[in-house]
Design brief:
Number of strands: 16
Shape: globular
Number of helices: 9
Number of domains: 3
Strand content: 25-35%
Distance between the termini: 9 Å
CATH topology of the largest domain: D-amino Acid Aminotransferase, Chain A, domain 1
CATH architecture of the largest domain: 2-Layer Sandwich
């Protein structure tokens, strides 16, 4: 097959892992910087061009769309859908998962557990609404943040209000969530490919840190998820329309609690921690689908 990987940087671990997996299975693979793609409708026919070269000959596409390029990515994937080119990620699934509010709305509509969450717009109601969470500390997250960047812990009501006022002043959208004390700085990533949890790991925050992201100095170990966690992860990706995803959750007193569903999860942490060739799992999914 002719497989195109949409990535800003061909040297990234995840991109290189995909290239290696595809070539080991005798597929032709190329990497294209999606930020330089042009959308064309010519003589009633849609196309995507990259420096004048058509992508119409691609049999399958693996999108690795960065957070800051979500809007472009949604448009590009929609164009590929009109062209009937197979993609492991649909435009609607990317939109559903990247918009944190939409993602949470879809999850809770289908009875999945998420932290008590506030997305505040009325500056006069900060204190009253934060009190509804019930206890401190609380977590304040930039809606557009990744890798733990823009995630803060407010230890008191006054600190939370001060942070919210600052973000509001700079016109940055944030959400406020309850802090799950019993998680003890650990979260769990279940990596799903085509309706199957293919690899799982626990990420533990370093001492003095509440963020478990590996980019923030956390460490990881392979784990065997519970049947309930597997069920929750598969239901979440199905709701959002994802075929390849990383589902991040906490172990809370109330059960598995979803923090985030990542539509373009990195492969380095999960592959090195679990020794599972996740990239080959993704290529196998493409082979079954195209």
């Amino acid at each position: 097959m002719n497989i195109t990987i949409l990535s800003r940087n061909a040297a990234l671990y995840s991109t290189q892992s995909m290239i290696k997996a595809a070539r080991s299975r005798n597929h032709f693979v190329r990497v294209i910087d999606y930020s330089n793609c042009d959308f064309v409708i010519r003589n009633g026919k849609p196309d995507v061009e990259y420096f004048g070269e058509s992508l119409f000959d691609a049999d399958a596409v693996i999108p690795r769309i960065g957070e800051s390029y979500t809007k472009l990515g949604v448009g590009l994937l929609r164009q590929l859908e009109v062209m009937d080119i197979f993609s492991v990620l649909s435009s609607q699934a990317l939109s559903n998962s990247r918009d944190k509010l939409s993602c949470l709305q879809l999850l809770v509509k289908n009875d999945l557990l998420v932290p008590h969450t506030l997305i505040l717009h009325n500056g006069h109601m900060y204190e009253e609404l934060i009190d509804t969470i019930g206890s401190y500390p609380v977590i304040i997250k930039l809606i557009s943040g990744t890798h733990g960047i823009g995630v803060l812990k407010a230890e008191s009501r006054s600190q939370a209000v001060s942070l919210l006022e600052t973000f509001n002043k700079t016109k940055q959208k944030v959400l406020v969530q309850e802090f799950i004390e019993e998680a003890k700085g650990a979260d769990y990533r279940l990596f799903v490919v085509d309706g199957e949890v293919v690899a799982s790991m626990k990420r533990q925050a370093k001492a003095g840190e509440f963020r478990s992201n590996l980019h923030r100095g956390g460490f990881a170990e392979a784990i065997t998820p519970t049947q309930e966690e597997i069920k929750v992860a598969l239901k979440a990706v199905d709701i959002l329309g994802l075929k390849v995803a990383g589902v991040d959750m906490l172990r809370s007193k109330r059960g598995p609690m979803i923090l985030e569903v990542n539509a373009s999860p990195g492969l380095e942490g999960i592959e090195k921690t679990t020794n599972v060739d996740v990239a080959s799992k993704i290529i196998s999914y493409i082979e079954r689908s195209v």
